[in-house]
Write a structure and sequence with these properties.
The chain has about 210 residues and is α/β, with parallel strands linked by helices. The chain contains nine helices and six strands. About 40% of the residues lie in helices and about 15% in strands. The structure holds flavin mononucleotide.
């Protein structure tokens, strides 16, 4: 997708199931020397789901809580590179097209956030940053998770894709025989990163 490695990424998390995918995605970014800056935004619903799925307690030290053990190994890298932005702050850096974000990923992306992006409802920072990505023709990857899908979801995926987003559903592969949920989520994250121009040397590669 990108013809150069993105250095400055915007990552958003919303209230869909799949917080483990966010954890592995952020861990990979924290450890990737090509990436200099990550602006991270979590909706209130994302926090609710993270509490269920990752046992995260509140917003304090949110990035470290999400990174888990890998933050303990490299706390400086994580805290200096990943900047938490408030979803209520529509005056944050990524709300403006003049800020040089190279790409944006919403992981996981709820169908509610998908709907707001697809309809240009930019009342919170996540949707505003996505709107900016589309208007500036920058990569926008939406890791949508819901099942089954109704026609509204399908229409909204089409609308977003038609406006330039990549619909990258949270659907992992199984042909590499993942031994754990962590391995499954890590490989999925690597696929998203490769799509953005950040291929990971540890990623599984199919050899026929
Ligand atoms: C445990 C839990 C799991 C959920 N899973 C999903 C899901 O997989 N997909 C989805 O679109 N919404 C899911 N929801 C509902 C969303 O969180 C809800 O629609 C919310 O308003 C989305 O807000 P946001 O888009 O601002 O983050 C879930 C909610 C909870 C509490």
């Amino acid at each position: 997708m990108a013809n150069h490695s993105p250095k400055n990424l915007t990552v958003a998390s919303t209230g869909a199931s799949g917080a483990i995918f966010l954890r592995h995605f952020l861990q990979a970014l924290a450890g990737d020397e090509r990436v200099e800056t990550v602006n991270f935004i979590a909706s209130d619903s994302a926090l609710r789901v993270m509490a269920e799925e990752l046992d995260i307690k509140g917003r304090s030290n949110l990035v470290s809580q999400i990174l888990g053990t890998s933050a303990a190994k490299s706390p400086k890298t994580a805290s200096s590179k990943i900047h938490l932005q408030s979803n209520d702050d529509i005056g944050a850096n990524v709300a403006s097209g003049s800020y040089p974000s190279d790409a944006m990923v919403v992981i996981p992306c709820s169908v509610g956030t998908l709907a707001r992006i697809a309809h240009g409802d930019a009342s919170h920072l996540i949707e505003r940053a996505a709107d900016v990505s589309l208007k500036e023709k920058r990569p926008l990857v939406l890791c949508v998770r819901e099942t089954p899908l109704n026609k509204i979801h399908i229409r909204n995926m089409f609308r977003a894709a038609d406006a330039g987003a990549t619909i990258f559903p949270l659907i992992p592969a199984f042909y590499y025989h993942p031994a754990s949920l962590d391995e499954m989520a890590r490989e999925f994250s690597y696929r998203v990163l490769a799509h953005l121009g950040l291929p990971q040397s540890q990623a599984f590669r199919w050899k026929a």
